[in-house]
From TrEMBL, chain A:
Domain of life of the organism encoding this protein: Eukaryota
Stored SMART domains: TPR
Region named Disordered: 572-607
GO MF terms held by the record: ribosome binding
Biased composition, class Basic and acidic residues, residue ranges: 575-590
Protein name according to UniProt: N-alpha-acetyltransferase 16, NatA auxiliary subunit
Name of the coding gene: NAA16
Matching Pfam families: NatA_aux_su, TPR_2
GO cellular component: cytosol; NatA complex
Keyword vocabulary terms for this entry: Repeat, TPR repeat
Alphabetized InterPro entries for the sequence: NatA_aux_su, TPR-like_helical_dom_sf, TPR_2, TPR_rpt
GO biological process, one term: protein stabilization
Upper lineage: Eukaryota, Metazoa, Chordata, Craniata, Vertebrata
Renumbered ranges of TPR repeats: 49-82
Organism: Aotus nancymaae
TrEMBL record, chain B:
Subunit structure: Component of the N-terminal acetyltransferase E (NatE) complex at least composed of NAA10, NAA15 and NAA50. Interacts with NAA10. Interacts with NAA15. Predominantly interacts with NAA15 in the N-terminal acetyltransferase A complex (NatA complex); the interactions reduce the acetylation activity of the NatA complex. Component of the N-terminal acetyltransferase E (NatE)/HYPK complex at least composed of NAA10, NAA15, NAA50 and HYPK. Within the complex interacts with NAA15. Its capacity to interact with the NatA complex is reduced by HYPK. Interacts with NAA35.
InterPro entries, alphabetized: Acyl_CoA_acyltransferase, N-term/lysine_N-AcTrnsfr
Homology family: Belongs to the acetyltransferase family. GNAT subfamily.
UniProt source species: Aotus nancymaae
Protein name from the UniProt record: N-alpha-acetyltransferase 50
GO cellular component: NatA complex
Catalytic activity: N-terminal L-methionyl-L-lysyl-[protein] + acetyl-CoA = N-terminal N(alpha)-acetyl-L-methionyl-L-lysyl-[protein] + CoA + H(+); N-terminal L-methionyl-L-threonyl-[protein] + acetyl-CoA = N-terminal N(alpha)-acetyl-L-methionyl-L-threonyl-[protein] + CoA + H(+); N-terminal L-methionyl-L-valyl-[protein] + acetyl-CoA = N-terminal N(alpha)-acetyl-L-methionyl-L-valyl-[protein] + CoA + H(+); N-terminal L-methionyl-L-leucyl-[protein] + acetyl-CoA = N-terminal N(alpha)-acetyl-L-methionyl-L-leucyl-[protein] + CoA + H(+)
SUPFAM superfamilies: Acyl-CoA N-acyltransferases (Nat)
Length: 833, 146
């Protein structure tokens, strides 16, 4: 704006504007305000330049990078060779991934300062990122030649330069050149292992298999546990038969008798009798030695039912024998097994039967192990896991607590215990558990947020969600989102730092990581939960508490009203105590915060407004908030069907038909038989037919595309087909049944009967799925059906007697609004026993 | 050998408590456990706590989990004590006491009737091992090994 004023000769306004900028206390030092208007002409030039530069810096510190770039460009119009501004501009451009702009700016910097090595490097990197490998390599080679490092000298920065250069060659598929290059300079490369690995990779690509095999053999000699080296060796030797492969493993095993990998890999490959032989050997060695992660190492074989039964036979026989005679089998002699062998066998069997879903047996074995050795933490850890799989989360937390109490210096088991407590919705207890390791003086929640401890925060999100505490959950979702923002933001300093330190490979890796940062599972979890909650809040917005209670008291008898009022009074009293406690806590925290704030004043980032649960859960436009979380998922996690189904749910409520169509199409391409997708398709189709007033072209596109999916079938037949196709899968039956009711409420009985099937033909009658069905019976998907729910609960209880969700409720639930808060029911149920 | 001696710290003291609970018929209270922090040594077999020996001069408890007995763990514990004078009361239980302590050179000083109020048989022998100031005649005693 000051520039415009200058151009239009509106000096007075221009001056006013300058005064405004410069009166900001942050840069009062950039003085030069001259009151005398005779000098305004000259001063304007410099003020503008400084003004724009400084304004740009301000914007940058406020993280408004786009704006900052504009400011810098304006400044450059006045002084196009200003080095400082060009440098600052380049940093912003790479931060915002304006690669073309970055390249231009770096070109200018190179012209201005050709002797500075950062100029060359920066320019080369720009071409590399733009995938113009030729230019990048030309520049890097030019630059390398200027480095003049004598061939017998080892210089880390030069070594990194060589390796970076080589990486660019390989990305450009210039394998021959890359090989020659690395052979030429290998003596000056510090990372000797990497040199070998690169050689191996390239020799394979060039088809020089004999040489490649030599390289991989050497690599295996260095480290016999790296599976990649075995892969490389097999490719190099063009191994085709199983026998040849086994031979290699045998040889390597002889050379490296203590290596696990050459004994483990064959187990994946061989079938039947051969497998039994090898497995027997493998197990005996590891049980004798005492190898706690043995089951984990073998777990990946459990998709193969034949192998599973062989393992079971072998290990149960060991157990029976060791109990009587200290040998793996009754007719052996030699050295007896120490008592720990039986222990590890029982530990293994507990995990084995847990994996197979035979929880009673699993508990028997782990309890036998605990009886013999009650000091071993791993045993309690597994016991807790078994209870988790059973679905009794309180019991699981209890045993995990026992495990951590045996070694309170072990942060791993402490964290596991906190996680199990969160799964059991014991949020306060979990926080207390973490506080044993978090910083003194702040609350654990705060410290864990500061430390970006996202595993904890995402588990909290789920726990709050289950408890219906949407505000608290959303707060944590936003905290996680902020971490991702910060991690993206923090790369800024590395643009200068890495150039200076020449750690170029790491730098490029960092840029590439930041490009896909929100692909990480933590972001997905937070985003998914946030979207689910915002959808719920859109469907059932939270109103004033008292209003809701007014509505309730109208339909309620005097006795019940009295009960309700006394409950209210008790609740208020409790709330008051809680309030006082919170107040004391807050005061303490505020003292800490003030201290922190004084320290952190320089680092003001400006955007961190406080996250208040009550405000978050009463937000005006929940769907808009949901979309904010959705967008990175659509960009980065498009291969996960849930992304598109969540998108559908949002667009469905927004009434955006074409976006709904886009979502279901993408989901359909990933897995057309997905149960949730099936429900979305039917609801979508119904919605389209209900909306007769859509613009012509939209209707045309919709019917054309839906034709491909529904193929002329009416919705009922489409649903019937789905049910027939998936008759043995409870998940699918549930979805089909829900849609049956949705399409025709008169078929309620039949639909419920379908969803509650528990006969042998149904495959996935596991804890998770059965709980899903019972939740559906309660949340209105099948209308009013409390008696059917009760029947179902009893039947599930017979099937899974230990699972908390199906245990009979002792207390009666007196809240009249059952449907809204069915999660509270589960809390009650879970509290039993 | 796979037997090692570990240290008792406030972090793993519960393992020691657990061992005492399981091995000994008598329950020791929490104060005992606190005092024990200075001198107790749990014995680990492959890093699993299986045996414990809490008190130095007067041996209050020395024991090993049942499945791990007869593996040389008790011997290991007593080897630690070799250089110390020690004294203990031991209750006769199926005549199993005539063993490790005597092997290490302890002597029965006296027998106390009805020593224990809680376990049967109630009698106890007082065993003591004294190392005199090293001189020629006692050098053998010190060098006793198993």
């Amino acid at each position: 704006a000051p520039n415009k004023c200058y151009e239009q000769k509106q000096y007075k306004n221009g001056l006013k504007f300058c005064k405004m900028i410069l009166s900001n206390p942050k840069f009062a030092e950039h003085g030069g305000i001259v009151s005398c208007e005779r000098f305004v002409y000259v001063c304007f030039y410099f003020l503008n330049l400084i003004g724009w530069h400084v304004y740009g810096l301000l914007q940058r510190s406020d993280k408004k990078y786009d704006e900052a770039i504009k400011c810098y460009r304006n400044a450059l119009k006045l002084d196009k060779d200003n080095l400082q501004i060009l440098r600052d501009l380049s940093l912003l451009q790479i931060q915002m991934r304006d690669l073309e702009g970055y390249r231009e700016t770096r070109y200018q910097l190179l012209q201005l300062r050709p002797t500075q090595r950062a100029s060359w490097i920066g320019y080369a990197i720009a071409y590399h990122l733009l995938k113009d490998y030729d230019m990048a390599l030309k520049l890097l080679e030019e630059f390398r030649q200027t480095q003049q490092v004598p061939p017998n000298k080892m210089d880390y920065e030069y070594s990194e330069l060589i390796l970076y250069q080589n990486q660019v060659m390989r990305e450009a598929d210039l394998f021959q050149e890359s090989l020659e290059h690395i052979e030429t300079y290998e003596k000056q490369i510090c990372d000797k292992l990497l040199v070998e690995e690169i050689k191996g990779e390239i020799l394979l690509k060039l088809g020089r298999l004999k040489e490649a095999s030599e390289v991989f053999k050497n690599l295996i000699d260095r480290n016999a546990e790296n599976w990649c080296y075995y892969e490389g060796l097999e490719k190099a030797l063009q191994i085709s038969t199983l026998e040849e492969r086994l031979q290699i493993y045998e040889e390597i095993s002889k050379q490296h008798p203590r290596a696990i990998t050459p004994r483990r890999l064959p187990l994946t490959l061989v079938p039947g009798e051969r497998f039994r032989e090898l497995m027997d050997k493998f197990l005996r060695v590891n049980f004798s030695k005492g190898c706690p992660p043995l089951f984990t190492t073998l777990k990946s074989l459990y998709y193969n039912t034949e192998k599973v039964s062989i393992i079971q036979e072998l290990v149960t026989n060991y157990e029976a024998s060791l109990k009587t005679c200290d040998f793996f089998s009754p007719h052996e002699n030699g050295e007896k097994e120490p008592p720990t062998t039986l222990l590890w066998v029982q530990y293994f069997l507990a995990q084995h039967f847990d994996k197979l879903g035979q929880y009673s047996l699993a508990l028997d074995y782990i309890n036998a192990a605990i009886a013999s050795t009650p000091t071993l933490i791993e045993l309690f850890y597994v016991k807790a896991k078994i209870y988790k799989h059973i679905g009794n989360l309180k019991e699981a937390a209890k045993w995990m607590d026992e495990a951590q109490s045996l070694d309170t210096a072990d942060r791993f088991i402490n964290s596991k215990c906190a996680k199990y407590m969160l799964r059991a919705n014991m949020i306060k207890e979990a926080e207390e558990m973490c506080s044993k390791f978090t910083r003194e003086g702040t609350s654990a929640m705060e410290n864990l947020n500061e430390m970006q401890c996202m595993w904890f925060q995402t588990e909290c999100i789920s726990a709050y969600q289950r408890l219906g505490k949407y505000g608290d959950a959303l707060k944590k979702c936003h905290e996680v989102e902020r971490h991702f923002f910060e991690i993206t933001d923090d790369q800024f300093d590395f643009h200068t730092y890495c150039m200076r330190k020449m750690t170029l490979r790491a730098y490029v890796d960092l840029l590439r990581l930041e490009d896909i940062l929100r692909r990480h599972a933590f972001y997905f979890k937070a985003a998914r939960s946030a979207i689910e909650i915002y959808l719920k809040l859109y469907d059932n917005p939270l109103t004033n508490e008292s209003k809701q209670q007014e509505m309730n008291s109208e339909n309620v008898s005097a006795k019940e009203l009295k009960k309700m009022l006394s409950k209210q009074r008790r609740a208020q009293k409790k709330a008051k105590l809680e309030e006082e406690r919170k107040h004391a806590e807050r005061e303490r925290q505020q003292k800490n915060q003030k201290k922190k704030r004084d320290e952190e004043e320089e680092e003001a980032s400006g955007f961190k407004e406080e996250l208040i649960p009550e405000k978050l859960e009463r937000v005006e436009n929940p769907l808009e908030e949901a979309v904010k979380f959705l967008i990175p998922l659509k960009n980065l996690v498009a291969d996960n069907i849930d992304t598109h189904l969540l998108a559908f749910e949002i667009y469905f409520r927004k009434g955006k038909f074409l976006l709904m169509l886009q979502s279901v199409k993408r989901a359909f391409a990933i897995n057309s038989n997905n149960p949730w997708l099936h429900e979305c398709l039917i609801r979508f189709s119904k919605s389209v037919s209900n909306h007769s007033n859509l613009p012509d072209i939209v209707s045309k596109v919709l019917s054309q595309e839906m034709q491909k999916i529904f193929v002329n079938k009416d919705l009922e037949s489409f649903n019937e087909d789905f049910l027939k196709r998936n008759a043995t899968s409870l998940q699918h039956l549930l979805s089909g049944a829900k849609m049956m009711y949705f399409l025709d409420k008169s078929r309620q009985e039949k639909a419920i009967a379908l969803a509650t099937r528990l006969d042998e033909t149904v495959n996935d009658k596991n804890v998770k799925t059965l709980i899903k069905v019972s939740e559906a019976l309660l949340d209105g998907s099948f209308g009013n059906c409390s008696s059917q729910y009760e029947e179902y609960r009893m039947a599930c209880h017979n099937l899974l007697p230990f699972t908390s969700a199906f245990l009979p409720a002792v207390n009666e639930i007196d809240s009249p609004s059952v449907a809204l808060n069915h999660t509270a029911n589960y809390d009650v149920l879970a509290n039993e026993i | 050998s796979r037997i090692k001696l570990g240290d008792v710290t406030p972090h793993n003291i519960k393992q020691l408590k657990r061992l005492n609970q399981v091995i000994f018929p008598v329950n020791y209270n929490d104060k005992f456990c606190k005092d024990v922090l200075e001198v107790a040594k749990p014995v680990c077999f492959d890093d699993i706590a299986v045996g414990a020996n809490p008190k130095r001069l007067y041996i209050m408890t020395l024991g090993c989990l049942a499945p791990y007995q007869r593996q040389g763990i008790g011997t290991n514990l007593l080897l630690e004590l070799q250089a110390l004078n020690h004294v203990l009361n031991i209750c006769e239980k199926d005549g199993t006491f005539d063993n490790i302590y005597l092997k290490f050179g302890s002597e029965i000083i006296e027998t106390k009737k009805n020593y224990s109020k809680r376990i049967q048989p109630a009698d106890a022998h007082l065993l003591q091992k004294n190392l005199k100031v090293p001189s020629g005649q006692n050098a053998d005693v010190q060098k006793t090994d198993n």
